[in-house]
Amino acid sequence: MTAPIGLFYGSTTGNTESIADLIAENIGFDKIDRIDIAADGLDSISDYQYLILGIPTWDFGELQEDWADLWEIAENANVAGKTCAVFGLGDQIGYGEWFLDAMGLLHNLLKAQGAEMVGYWPIEGYSFDESKALTEDGCQFVGLAIDEDCQHGETFARVEQWSQQVLAEFDML
Ligand SMILES: Cc1cc2nc3c(=O)[nH]c(=O)nc-3n(C[C@H](O)[C@H](O)[C@H](O)COP(=O)(O)O)c2cc1C
């Protein structure tokens, strides 16, 4: 049986996978299925009304490779009417001009299909030059911002807080 929430992620060096595990731990393993898109693709996205999607940014603002491979499928995933939250991984010091850009691209892809987007997150506490993962007013990230390269010490508390926020926005508390 499928859980109510599907968490789909791509991860090249394992950081996004670790955060997926941490989110599942915080949300409750019974409520969430974790799907590594490199192994299982995106076919089961239609099984879930509630979605969490995780993507790191690579190579100066580019999509992570597994997401890049499946991007056309993602564009036609038919998520209209589903409630979705995204999380992204990046490096605000090493790649401060492209911080979390891929999360912004994924958010926009889902929103363009008519998904209800939740899980927005404050920009306070981060330092970067530019990002495509900001809301139009520039005051928030469009999803949870995680930086394992520069702010690993913040990660646990951020994931804990965001998981509760998303559960409330999914109306599951
Ligand atoms: C070659 C390289 C390019 C990167 N490019 C970006 C980038 O453009 N923007 C960004 O925010 N982070 C960038 N990063 C940081 C990664 O997103 C970060 O290390 C992330 O945690 C990797 O996640 P993964 O282990 O799930 O693949 C880059 C890292 C490397 C090694």
Could you provide a short overview of the structure?
With 173 residues, this protein is of the alpha/beta class. It has a single domain, classed as Rossmann fold (3-Layer(aba) Sandwich). The protein has six helices and nine strands, in the order βαβαββααβαββββα.
List keywords for this structure.
6 helices; binds flavin mononucleotide; 173 residues; 9 strands; alpha/beta; seven-stranded mixed sheet
Protein architecture, described:
The protein has one domain (5-169): 3-Layer(aba) Sandwich (Rossmann fold). Helix 1 (15-27) crosses helix 6. It is an alpha/beta fold and 173 residues long. 33% of the residues lie in helices and 22% in strands. The two termini are 21 Å apart. The strands form two sheets. Strands 1, 2, 3, 4, 5, 6 and 9 form a seven-stranded mixed sheet that branches. It has a two-stranded antiparallel sheet with strand order 7-8. Flavin mononucleotide binds at residues 11-16, 56-61, 64, 89-91, 95, 98-101, 148-149.
Strand content: 15-25%
Q: What level of helicity do the residues show?
A: 25-40%
CATH second-level architecture: 3-Layer(aba) Sandwich
| Number of helical elements | 6
Q: Which CATH class?
A: Alpha Beta
Are any ligands bound, and if so which? flavin mononucleotide
Quote the average pLDDT. 98
- CATH-wise, what's the superfamily? Flavodoxin domain
